[in-house]
Design goal:
6 helices; Chorismate lyase; 2 domains; Arc Repressor Mutant, subunit A; about 25% helix; elongated; two-stranded antiparallel ribbon; six-stranded antiparallel beta sheet; about 30% strand; alpha+beta; disordered N terminus; about 250 residues; single chain
Length: about 250
């Protein structure tokens, strides 16, 4: 299940297809090569839906079996995915290497390698009865980070309302939680407490990241305090294993 918008193939002309019926090379391999080249060059970008089989058949004058075989080769190579009853979708899985000590800069590491964007999925106000992360009235914002339009992490941020007057959810669509704390509100972080554990993805997260349930992931929870020991934010982040390589920095 793809959780974010898929761009229709009909937004694109199929002028990237090159098929010579007089060639000794099988047509399905020519189609496969044409689609693969368009994917690798970005002419068919991530989350772009490939043309329907019947559209390719009509354009070139071939059977659906040939198109289906070309698409299966792309699926087997990991360039596209397909849900039952739908056209294949370009899905080049991002991969990010980051030291565990630099997790607070994860957006910078992603942006260095891929186009980065953030989606605010949920924003709400809660109180101490609704949630246990922060005592008293607070904001809860659920953010999904995307690398080249593919969801790669999920983040739940809890912010005390009293600390963030005039807060707007869109403040977090263009910057990280730490940028918000330090930049917009000018708080100094006096201390942070961090907790990390490994476990398997839940069924909901597996659907979000388009991964199998029970896929390994890393969960971190960080609590940030000001100089007076008051909580500035609690941030919980899910990092799916297939998208991240975590390295350790060990001093001698």
């Amino acid at each position: 299940m793809l959780a974010f918008c898929i761009q229709s193939a009909y937004d694109y002309r199929m002028n990237y297809l090159s098929v010579n019926k007089l060639s000794v090379e099988p047509i399905y391999r020519q189609l496969y090569t044409s689609f693969k080249t368009a994917i690798l060059t970005g002419e068919l970008p991530n989350l772009c839906e490939l043309p329907r089989e019947e559209a390719v058949c009509s354009l070139i004058g071939i059977s659906r079996v040939i198109v289906r075989r070309a698409y299966q080769m792309l699926i087997d190579e990991g360039l596209v995915i397909r849900e039952r009853g739908k056209s294949p979708v370009v899905y080049r899985r991002p991969h990010i290497t980051i030291p565990t000590s630099q997790l607070y800069r994860v957006d910078a590491y992603i942006a260095h390698q891929y186009p980065l964007s953030r989606r605010i999925v949920v924003s709400e106000t809660l109180n101490s009865v609704d949630g246990f992360k922060i005592v008293g009235d607070h904001y809860h914002i659920l953010i999904v980070g995307l690398a080249d339009r593919i969801p790669v992490y999920r983040q739940d941020a809890y912010l005390p309302i009293a600390k963030y007057p005039k807060f707007h959810r869109h403040d977090l669509s263009a910057q990280s939680i730490l940028d918000l704390i330090r930049g917009i509100y000018g708080y100094r972080i006096g201390q942070s407490k961090n907790y990390t554990m490994q476990r398997s993805l839940s069924k909901l997260d597996a659907k979000l990241f388009n991964l199998d349930a029970q896929t390994p992931m890393m969960r971190t929870e960080s609590t940030f305090f000001d100089d007076q020991g008051e909580v500035l934010a609690v941030v919980e982040t899910i990092y799916p294993g297939p998208f991240f390589d975590f390295t350790m920095q060990v001093g001698l």
